[in-house]
Amino acid sequence: MTVVAPTLTLERRLLKDFDLIIALDEVGRGALAGPVAVGAAVIDAAGSRRRVLEGLRDSKLIAEKRRPEMAERASRWVPLSAVGWSSAAEIDQVGIMRALGLAASRAVQAVVDAGASLERTLVILDGNHDYVSRVHPAPLTVRTVVKGDRDCASVSAASVIAKVARDTHMAALHPEHPDYQWERNKGYASPEHRQAIREKGLSPLHRSSWAIADAPTLF
């Protein structure tokens, strides 16, 4: 199967009307344990004229062993980047969609705190649902882009930055909860993870509001 590389075509067109783009993509939505994370990658008109990084793809299309290097390169390729988080406890408290909004809002705020302006700025959000506007305290102009992580290089950059950050976080939690093998499954519903839940029960980092024991395998 031929994998089409993402481009900056949409970003260049949109930057005729905006000064800045903040591209967002989430990881961890379907996991059984750990936080959800949203990556943010900022691009301006000058950046949109640069060559797209060789090998940049949606994080799911990059081999796991190559993702850390690509995430590091992606973070250098854009002027600003950040990752916003929402914990398993927050997911249980407010639901996954609002938790995604909280994580996205925190990612946006992080790049704003680092110097990005929201004036004449467009937020590109992967998918077809705007979950960030109603959560962020300041008004945002948001455009959802279906398959943005595949087609838009800025969103691909946000995707791999968030994926590596979350995978690293889950691997770091493994020594405290080794039965669940999070260093391998990153909190997703692998058969071994589900079996450990049946045998050991839930940890404090599982999304306890979910029907976890009978969850389907997600990867």
Automatic annotation (TrEMBL):
This is Ribonuclease. The keyword Cytoplasm applies. A divalent metal cation binds at residues 25-26, 126. Belongs to the RNase HII family. It is an enzyme of class 3 (hydrolase). Transmembrane segments: none annotated. SUPFAM superfamilies: Ribonuclease H-like (SSF53098). Endonuclease that specifically degrades the RNA of RNA-DNA hybrids. Residues 19-219 form the RNase H type-2 domain. It is found in: Cytoplasm. Manganese or magnesium. Binds 1 divalent metal ion per monomer in the absence of substrate. May bind a second metal ion after substrate binding. The keyword Nuclease applies. It catalyses: Endonucleolytic cleavage to 5'-phosphomonoester. GO terms for molecular function: RNA-DNA hybrid ribonuclease activity. Keywords: Cytoplasm, Endonuclease, Hydrolase, Manganese, Metal-binding, Nuclease. Coiled coil: none annotated. CDD domains: RNase_HII_bacteria_HII_like (cd07182). Pfam families: RNase_HII (PF01351). Its EC number is 3.1.26.4. Its cofactor is Mn(2+); Mg(2+).
